[in-house]
Design brief:
The chain has 317 residues and is of the alpha+beta class. 64% of the residues lie in helices and 14% in strands. The chain folds into 2 domains: 17-224, Up-down Bundle (Alpha-lytic protease prodomain-like), CATH 1.20.1510.10; 234-315, Cation efflux protein, cytoplasmic domain (Alpha-Beta Plaits, 2-Layer Sandwich). The chain contains 9 helices and 4 strands.
Length: 317
Amino acid sequence: MSAVHHHHHHDELSAHHRGDSSYTHRARAAGGRTLTVAVALTLGFAFVELVAGLWSGSLALLADAGHMATDSASLLFALIANIIARRPVSERHSFGLARVEVIAAFVNALFMVAVVLWIAIEAFNRINAPVPVQGLAVIGVGSVGLLVNVLVAWTLSRERDNVNIRAAFIHVLGDLLGSVAAILAGTIIYFGGPLIADPVLSLLVAGLIVRSTYGVLKETTFVLLDSVPTGVDYGAVGATLAKLPGIVSVHDLHVWSMVPGKAALSAHVLVDDIERWPAILQQARQALNRDFKIDHITLQPEWLRREPGVISIRKSE
């Protein structure tokens, strides 16, 4: 029997990177075109809102520009991931380059924390000393922004099979609320309402940014630290393995996220009969995938070697 017993479950990896999967490649290409259109629309209008906000004096428009910039960055990261997913693994990058998306999202989240701090400081300053705002301009630009967000959301809704696009779609729904807040601020001011409506509603948009940014920052930090994936109980994983027929004990157990949504596991397992290892391995793979959605599995078997008068633990080499 071979001394080395490893199992890497690469079904999904193969589907992503084999050249014979023309359907997958076409689907990704279509998703890439959808994301390109969404990035162009969202980022382009974020720049328009930035200029309009500076001209009109509206902090709500500037805040919404920041929110749209955040989401356009999220769309851009999804586009990058879409492009990278078409590239095969290499000798240099045996896991592929999917973590580029995680690093970029982490850096973007840090940048948006600074944007939120600026919005909050400026908003409180304007509450104490209100600044004149061109209400009609805010209404006009906010209304166009609302239409842009509706168009982007409709574009993304047509690609429901791509998890990155579904995540981006959720961000764009947040943009819709930002545009509504800007329109509301402009309307209140145009009809003679208090000027503090603008900074107060800008704080609402900043809150939307904080919510989405916190989620991205938390998720990417956990991935970069090789933490146990959210929703996976580390103790339960070990217990599940240990309870399988033929496994005596489990040690050196590691569970981590390769990228969001793709978990990996490695462990040493002591088995009572090495001859049954292929069946034990298959059972372990099925249980881990079924109960914890772990699809990249490496198990190192160890077994008891019995000799006259001697019982020792042997490892595969």
